[in-house]
Structure formats: structure tokens, C-alpha cells
Design a protein that fits this description.
The structure is a homotetramer.
Chain A lengths: L1 E5 L10 H10 L2 H6 L2 E6 L2 E7 L13 H17 L6 E12 L7 E11 L3 E12 L2 E16 L2 H4 L1
Antiparallel strand pairs in A: 1-4, 2-3, 3-5, 4-7, 5-6, 6-7
Family (chains A, B, C, D): Belongs to the thioesterase PaaI family.
InterPro entries (chains A, B, C, D): ACOT13 (IPR039298), HotDog_dom_sf (IPR029069), PAAI_dom (IPR003736), Thioestr_dom (IPR006683)
GO molecular function, one term (chains A, B, C, D): fatty acyl-CoA hydrolase activity
Amino acid sequence: MDEGVGQPEGSSERRDPLERVRTSFERQGLMRLLGARVLEVGEGSCTIEVPFSDEVTQQERYFHGAVIGAVGDNAGGYAALTLAPPDREVLTVEYKVNFLAPAFGEKLVARGEVVTAGRRLFVCKADVSAVGGNGERICATVLQTVSLSPITARTSR
Amino acid sequence: MDEGVGQPEGSSERRDPLERVRTSFERQGLMRLLGARVLEVGEGSCTIEVPFSDEVTQQERYFHGAVIGAVGDNAGGYAALTLAPPDREVLTVEYKVNFLAPAFGEKLVARGEVVTAGRRLFVCKADVSAVGGNGERICATVLQTVSLSPITARTSR
Amino acid sequence: MDEGVGQPEGSSERRDPLERVRTSFERQGLMRLLGARVLEVGEGSCTIEVPFSDEVTQQERYFHGAVIGAVGDNAGGYAALTLAPPDREVLTVEYKVNFLAPAFGEKLVARGEVVTAGRRLFVCKADVSAVGGNGERICATVLQTVSLSPITARTSR
Amino acid sequence: MDEGVGQPEGSSERRDPLERVRTSFERQGLMRLLGARVLEVGEGSCTIEVPFSDEVTQQERYFHGAVIGAVGDNAGGYAALTLAPPDREVLTVEYKVNFLAPAFGEKLVARGEVVTAGRRLFVCKADVSAVGGNGERICATVLQTVSLSPITARTSR
């Protein structure tokens, strides 16, 4: 399984969800590269935005589907992280993304939330919208399975 | 539906698949950003590679799942493009990615192929492997639906 | 592509959605076999229920995942049919189902709705709940792509 | 998570995979209802067939997509069961099915196999074909995540 989206520092105390998400987020090279930032974090929810730039487009100057999938996946994964025990990390097992409309605008906004939280597996979803002069339009929806794993030396360094 | 992965120049002649894929590929800001390149193109298949860099990692220095999903999606979409009539473009309707193992190594290699080619919809799949000193290891598999659409002024410019 | 979920009788008038759904539904051998019935039909929505019986279980006497997937798929597909032009039929291109909790109770209720309606492709979703003495509990969620196709002699007989 | 596809009898010995699969299979009301039977079981693979009957059709007398999904899901799940420790049961976490062609013929044959076997999660796939006078034609492909869980009193009775 792949793609850890978070690992607390080994403490067993409950940490502030926003801080926990941001600490993990800042260590993701890809999110930096995309200029993504965490807008909002709640218990079981997370909102991420990505500003438009030439780097995040496909050949038609729309936001690239891969970027849409990436922020949707991340928004769902970080939503799960807000509910995970401090000694657990969150890994994406799989996700499916349906593209609903071309994504054109000033930024992408991905809103992730936990659908069900099990002991080891969470199911999450995320809607991704393009926001521009004409308002906001949903452009993709993501349905995702994430797993909670013990943080190991390998993953927590 | 989203994410055009290719559009020929309005000619009705069959174009060289490799040239067709590369022309489209070079216009994708994201693929440039990732340093991705097309390795091989056949009738109904396409192989893409992405070298390791700090920009394509998640917080554990593995390849980011979003990058894995992106190259898998692209490999499948470009495999479809090789079989598309010259006046059609290929759009990803949806894809699902299962992460199979952590992706660590010098590069990612995504091999896409067409499973079935309908009149309007293709089903494609792609396997993504991490290649390093220890050989090659499959790290994700993608199952994808793409649609063929007439190239419009909006999409072909 | 497979699994037509509806075809009107060749008339080009707008038909009553409930009648349209029921006419198609009654012709499905599998739905009869499961004892399924259409509870409610709206513009872009459809609710189906399946009573508990020994025939719809897996080895643990829970509702079988296949039955859950089937009614979820059907609820989404019929939701699409309510918005389809009278000369079009609805076919499921693909669906994904996440199982959220064991499904035990007196009946299954699947609520499907259209997420986005395109010219040729719809994206739909459905939630499936188990209903029993302890109330209602969501047990699965479905995300689905359906296509609209002209009704042909082959499919409309 | 839902849909157990198998549970051994509490013994810790490795049991014959074919026997293990058949024991579980026979307890599935739905599989009996469909007339399904296990054709072949290997280490990490399983083949199931379903004969044509009026009960397994949709409104066009093709095999119903739900039946196709069900046997694909089961073929993958039972493939996983062949590799599961005797004290574990196999539950489907989620699956995605793409329908590739109308399924018409004398029987459906679903061939499931394990793609990767983790400690707690397996990824499996299955191809489902329709077999008739004109030979065999693949009509659907399934990509699936299953989990291994300890057999509990609740599930093993």
C-alpha cells in the first residue's frame, strides 16, 4: 500500500488536527510543487486549495486531471488523519475519481470528508471544484479507501 | 468529463502514433513539471517514465501516490490515443488506482494498454512500477474509462 | 458496455418517470428473483428496496455484497433513466462499491441520484442501507458512470 | 466492511483450498440461487461459472450486470481465500467493475486471481466472460480490495 499522508511524532497525546495535517502536508514535495495549501481542517474533514499555474495544466490549459485526483486524494486522506490515533499513519489503499466537468478557473478547491471510520480502514470522499470569475463548479468526485497503520521507523523518519 | 490527453491538428489522415502522443504530451505543463517522458508507443499501448526527484515525493520520500496515479492515467489515456481516429480526442471519464507497494527507486515506469476499444468509450489499464537498484517492482494498478470526442475549437486550440 | 437499465417503447414523448422505471424494472429477471421493488422515483432519483430472504445472503446470513452492489447499481441507473430522453436507454459503463458495514436487517434500501448529467454520460451515486429493528444503517456506497445510447432494435425488443 | 467470502472451521491447519472454497461457497444463498458453481481453484486463483437462466438476466435477456459483478467479486474473493491463513476470513472492502461488452450466451465464466497479497489487504482482479456458440468473449473486468480478518464467533457460526 502506498502514499502515507501523515505521521505524528510518536507522542500518544491527541494533537491539534490542523497542526497535524499541516506538519505532514509541508513535507510533501508534490504539494509544495503544486503550490497547494490547507485551507481548513475539522474533525473528519479537510479542505485544500491549489492556485492556477502553467504547471498544473494539461494540454488545454485546464487543470490537469492528475492534479485534481491528487488534491482530492489528499483532502480525503487528511480528513482521515484528523480522526486517526496519534500513533497511526494514514495510507491510501485505493481511490476512484470521476471527472464531472472541465476544470478551468483561478483555483481548485478540494473538500474531503470521512464517510465511515473503522478500526483499520476508513472510507472517505472528496469533491473537487474549480473556482473562478463565474463562481464555483464541481469538476470531480473521489471515493477512497485509506488504512491506518502503526507508525514505523521506516515511515516516521 | 475532463482531462484531454490528446488532439491531432484537424487533419483526417492517420498520424504516426508516437508523434501524436508526443505532440500532446509536450503541451502538458504537469508532465514537464514532473520530468516525465514517453518511452514507447505502440498500437494500443504507451509507456511513460518519471525520474525520481524531491518534487514528486510525499512526506516519506516515496513517489507520491498522485504522481503514480497521474502517470498511470496518462499511460492508459495515451494508449487509447494511439487507436483514436485523427479527428477525435481522448478524455478520461474516470479511473481507479490501487496502490500495491511503496514506490521507492530511481524512476517510475507506467505501462498503459487498451483493454477494449468501443466506438465512443475505451477501457484501459496501466501498471506502474518503481525501478531501482533492486530491480523493478509493481507499485500500482490503474483501471480506467476514457471517451473519444470530436475535437472542437475549444479543445483543439 | 453492458446492462441496459431501461428502454421506452419507441415513443418520443416524455413518459412518466415512475412508469418508465417500473416498466423496465419488471422485465429484469434478477430483480424479480431478489424480490426487489421500486419505492420512489423522482427527477434524477430512485429508491429501491429488497426484503431479507435466504436467497440474498452470503454465508453469514448477511445480505450478500453482490445484492448490495446490484441494488445500488440499479438505483443509480434508474435515477439516470428519469432524466434520459425517451429515445435513449441507460447502460452502466462501470461502478465502484465500497462496503461500509455488515448489512443485516429486514430489508435493504438503495437511494440513487444523478450527480451530473452530460449529453452522453451521467455520473450517479447511491447509498445502500440495511433497515431493521435497530433503525437504519448505511452499509455501502456506490459511484457509477452510465451512458445514454440510442434505443436500437436489438436492445428495445 | 462487508461480505465475508469464507471462513475455515477454527482449525489452524492448512486446508485444501478447493475444499475450503467449496465449503464457503455452498453456504452462500445467492450463489445457489444463481446456480453458480466453482470450476477450479488454485493457489491464488479461482474460476466460477453461472449457467444462463431467466433469473439472471436484465430486461434484454443479457446476463444482468449485477450477476456479472457478483461472480467477478466472488472469483476474486475466493482467489484470495486460497492464500489466506486458516484462521482468517476474507471480506470484500470494495470493488470496481467495468462492463466491456454485452454478456449473452450459455454461461458466464469468472476467473479471479490475486494481484498482490499483503499482510492484511489483498488486491485481486477478475475477468468475466460470456461463453456461447460463438466462443468466449470477455464482458467485464473487476479490480478489488479484500481484507483478511480474524474469524470471530460472530462470523464463523
